[in-house]
Amino acid sequence: MNLPGPAARSAWSAACKILSRSFKPRGGWDSQANSCWPTKDVLRRRFSVAAAPSEQGEVVVDPASIRNVAVIAHVDHGKTTLMDRLLRQCGAALSQERAMDSISLERERGITIASKYTSMSWGGYELNVVDTPGHADFGGEVERVVGMVEGAVLVVDAGEGPLAQTKFVVAKALKLGLRPILLLNKVDRPTVNLERCGEVESMVFDLFANLGASDEQLDFPVLYASAKEGWASQMFVKDPSGEERSMAPLLDTIVKHVPPPNGDLQSPFQMRVSMMERDYYLGRILTGRIASGIVRVGDKIHGLRSSGSASEIIDVGKVVKLMKKRGTGTSIVDSAGAGDIVSVAGLNNLSIGHTVSSVEVTTALPATLMDPPTISMTFSVNDSPLAGHDGNQLTGPKIGERLMAEAESNLSINVAPTAGQDAYDVQGRGELQLGILIENMRREGFELSVSPPAVMYKYENGTRLEPIEEVIIEVNDEDSGTIIEGMSHRRSELLEMTPCTESVGRTRLIFTCPSRGLVGYRSVFNTETHGSGLMHRSFLTYEKHRGPLGNVRKGVLVSMASGIITSHALMNLESRGVLFVHPGLEAYSGMIVGEHSRDSDLEVNPVRTKELTNVRAASKDENVRLSPPRQVSLEEAIGYVAVDELIEVTPKAIRLRKKFLDATKRKAMRRTNKDA
User: Fold this and answer.
1) Which of 220, 243, 559, 595 has the greatest number of CB atoms lying within 10 Å of its CB?
2) Which pTM value belongs to this model?
């Protein structure tokens, strides 16, 4: 472009600086020239928005050119990697892999914990794509965001096929009428061929049919991809040529197959909150899809909440800032219309499920329906002798305030005070979900005591019902007998036992098992299969209580004294069982220091020192050689502790202890329980 005169060149330079600060590379950018300057179309669109503050001249994206889609799958089937490739295909510059995993724990564990969305442009269309977790414990994240989209890309590992969590997320998507697109990922693996892909496609079709999919939903397109290599194809291919190694076929299928959102730009503004963030300067940032109307910066708005058959106003304010995710960043916008997904700042008393609307609207949108939690744990103040040594958030009100804030932003977690002082009952979907909450709190400086998980029962006509889960296990042939025996002690029922078609020497087992029987089983499973087994579980239904569990854990070694643990004492305790501690740690009476080799608990003295004498002898003292102690992680501790035990969580340590530290009181409680 030739701009005559220094004044024009100065104006052009100033405009480019403003654009470069506020926009990320996207579909309208010149990606072939590897340039960070926007194209003419983007410049024309941005200048038209900036130059048109009035209602008649403003530019709002037409709902017909918007596509809202979620990426759903079982854990480790390639969702987050696929998101990286889609962003790169649309021109975004990513500084690292797994760009959508912005939480530190997500990067450490390699899993997606929270749902996140971003937008990208492709072929003149605006694509709002939502990345969802794949683990069953974070199913609430899927439930609260599928209402924002009209379509879903179902990612299935072509080698493994649809697994337990696949059924859960597909059921939620089909129930809301979403149009699915099947993407068979990892087709470049040596064990995957066209015949295997046909089998997986048939399995997915049967799954859709069993879940009550409509004829329109059963007519889903199928694509083949390798997200790791960055390509997708409408035909089965193992290694496409250079021009065909792109994600363009998937993006074109989304534009063609996913319907545009329904929304009237002329109606008053309404938006249901599906995500919530906190900002030190803006307060609560509320994210959702606009159901109708147009919202502008400075508009007067209020928050509504359904209360029975009526709606009540819970907050009044104005739009302070309007934002939209672009790639891995955030752009400030002046207005947005129906069908688009945006973030609004200006109301501080709303949470997920509430409605943001214009002041003339008095009826709230329907709230998001969530499945009930299945387990509960009690969070209380840390009252051990070592309390206050590591953390700075110690009091009950501080713990309660943090838990209430978590419940506002995570609808799948319920928090309620208990009859005990400074104790709170926290209900969730599984031990992994609550373990993530505990880990976040200890990193924030909290110290607390946590009870073992308790399954939440239902009662119908006087009959106690318990949650039953479907468990899919894949192990080596020689380990299948051990797994079947172990699962039988946990009141499970074996439904199916078949060889894995995609892996020679492997067996696939399908069980139904009570949720209480699976608490703490993952670490035992990894030990019994030597780390080679795969286990997937998902909630199935409620059934009649199956009776008490078998013997699934041995007794523990309980310290009877306080002080510094010595190697001399541990040397004599190694024959008693497996130790959890090493010399130099501080112990107290009632603290669990190991697992007993028998079924009963044993009180020991791990702080005993060697008696010194004035007799000297050559080679009298021998070097003490101890086996490495068993390191108990937070997830293992949650599944390990018994009813009369607690987990002491601090920023620097995780300890196991008895609920009652005094030995005399523990004996009295055991006698009371026997009499009862």
Assistant:
1) 559
2) 0.78
Query: Which residues have C-beta within 8 Å of that of residue 241, sequence separation ≥ 6?
Result: none
Reading the block at residue 319, the tokens are 């739009």
Length of the chain: 676
User: What do you get for the CA distance between the two ends of the chain, in Å?
Assistant: 89
CA atoms within 13 A on the CB side of 57: 9
Dist CA 166 CA 73 (whole Å): 6
The set of long-range contacts for 490-497, using a CB threshold of 8 Å and a minimum separation of 24, is 490/514, 490/517, 490/518, 490/521, 490/549, 490/550, 490/552, 491/517, 491/546, 491/547, 491/549, 491/550, 492/517
Q: Cβ atoms within 10 A of the Cβ of 612, count? A: 6
The one-letter code for the residue type at 516 is R
Model confidence pLDDT, tens digit, residues 464-513 = 998 888 888 889 888 889 999 989 988 899 998 988 876 778 898 999 99
DSSP secondary structure, 331-388, as one string: EEESEEETT-EEEEES-SS--TT-EEEETT--SPPPPPP-PPP-EEEEEEE--STTTT
Phi and psi torsions of 216, nearest 5°: -65, -40
SS3 percent helix, strand, coil of the chain, rounded to 5, is: 30, 30, 40
Contact between residue 131 and residue 112 where contact means Cβ atoms under 8 Å apart:
yes
pLDDT digits (tens, 9 = 90+) for 143-192: 888 888 888 999 998 888 887 777 777 888 888 888 899 999 988 888 88
Strand intervals (E) in 113-177: 116-122, 125-131, 151-157
DSSP states of 649-662:
E-SS-EEEEESS-S
Count Cβ atoms below 10 Å from residue 114 Cβ, excluding itself: 20
Alpha helices in 155-283 (DSSP H): 164-175, 194-210, 215-218, 248-257
Query: What are phi and psi for residue 635, nearest 5 degrees?
Result: -65, -40
The tokens describing 260, both together, are 């545009």
CA distance 123 to 567: 69
How would DSSP label each residue in 437-504? HHHHHHHTTB-EEEPPPEEPPEEETTEEEEEEEEEEEEEEGGGHHHHHHHHHTTT-EEEEEEE-TTST
Q: What is the CA radius of gyration of the chain?
A: 29
> What type of residue is 405?
A
**How many whole angstroms separate alpha carbon 225 and alpha carbon 83?**
13
Q: How far apart are CA 302 and CA 545, in angstroms?
A: 47
